[in-house]
Amino acid sequence: MSFAAAIRTYGRMVRFSHSLFALPFALAGAAFAAAGRGVTAWQLFWIVVAMVGARNAAMGFNRLADHRLDAANPRTAGRELPRGALTRGAVWAFVIALSAVFVIASAMLNPLCLALSPAALAIIFLYSYTKRFTWATQFFLGLSLAIAPVGGWLAVRGEFGAVPLVLAGAVLAWVAGFDIIYACQDVEFDRGAGLRSVPQRFGVPRALWIARALHALTVFLLASVAWLMNLHAAYLVGVALVGGCLALEHSLVRPGDLSRVNLAFFTANGAVSILYLAAALAGIALRP
Fold this sequence. Notes:
77% of the residues lie in helices and 0% in strands. The chain is mostly helical. The longest helix is centred in the C-terminal third of the chain and has 26 residues, at 204-229. The N and C termini lie far apart (56 Å). The model has no long low-confidence stretch (mean pLDDT 91).
């Protein structure tokens, strides 16, 4: 396999383009932390490196943990490990290398980020096994991505605050909501394989209502940041657009018709993260 082909194969395995979901929230956390005090290009560089390292290490680990399950599920049997495009040894090397990148990037930011980096890796790796023992697995995924805005804030400030915690709650609710929608595709397979999820536990119709409630909570928490940060009204316009994207996402999915789940999952949620970062930057730049 050529170097270029290997890069493409690893990129497909971890769905590298989906880094877009968490990275804007990490940058938003950094932007809020930097408001009134500034941020350096060096800090931004290492925040991006840390996010890319952690997110893709987690995805590689997930593929290793789910190798047998992916091979048995018709929807995922074509992934790189089940079809033999990559070996487990190669993926383990990838995970270890990207984990090291994350720890190094954390060390380059500040001592607190370095001290917390093992805990962050433990959380994002644990998610891959939660479907085996709890139906709340989607909430664990939300927790994994909720680390992003907290990490962005800590990278700049080196201390905790209310804003990143509220933003983390919004990200947790957002991710748990859209992953519940995504998991509706596998509810029958999960029941047969003894796996747990919100749709498996409550059924698809109720699961979709839970996802709607979580996304309503997301919008509320995002809006509350405007008060905590004294942001310009442009921020709330952006949050309203985020709410519109989430409403569109839910309009595409019905209990009896999950054919547009991928459109709802990838397109709408990619727009949410980009819109939110733009709203955060505008709210900071234009505030009194």
